[in-house]
Write a structure and sequence with these properties.
With 201 residues, the protein is an all-alpha fold. Helices cover 73% and strands 0% of the residues. Helix 2 crosses helix 7 and helix 7 packs across helix 8. The longest helix has 27 residues. The termini are far apart.
Length: 201
Amino acid sequence: MPKSNAPTNTTASQRAKIQLTPADWINAATAVLVDKSVDAVRVDLLAKGLNVTRGSFYWHFQDRDDLLQQVLKFWRDAATEQIINRFEGSGADPEALVHELASLPFHGQAAFDSASIELAIRAWARRDEMARQVVDEVDAKRLSYISQTFVALGFSFQEAGMRAFLLYSYMISESLMNGQGTETQRLQRRDFVAQRMLRKS
């Protein structure tokens, strides 16, 4: 159902433009967030970039805050929930999963794009309570999942939590500093971290 404040008398041309999905607006807003900042995510500029009227925006969203909330939700689902679901459905054993987690920053353009979005959202979260709460939720969810993986490998809950934090810190650092070292050196770092995280002594 359309939002209550969506235009009620649309022309054929306007109806065609309303065929834009919420995901189109979310993707456009995310691109602006990455390229500029959250301050630049404005309805009028997004509409201009998508070549539609402002009215078509209100077909999908109540207001700018609603859009920003959906940007955060989309990021949380794509960067956390979907990845966890994919891992859980793969049937990989815990040791293989640790190697898979350490390899996430190496997934080509997808990893680069994900890191760019994450950096922009974390910068946003430094000065916005709504964004900070979502980032904290995402961090907690990821750490819990990684910790459970180490528990399954036989580590105590306390040690599993510490190892999860170290592995997660590495994953974020490798994603955000992917220009440090040659590809061979980066792969060596990845293997070194995974092996140390699995070592029980």
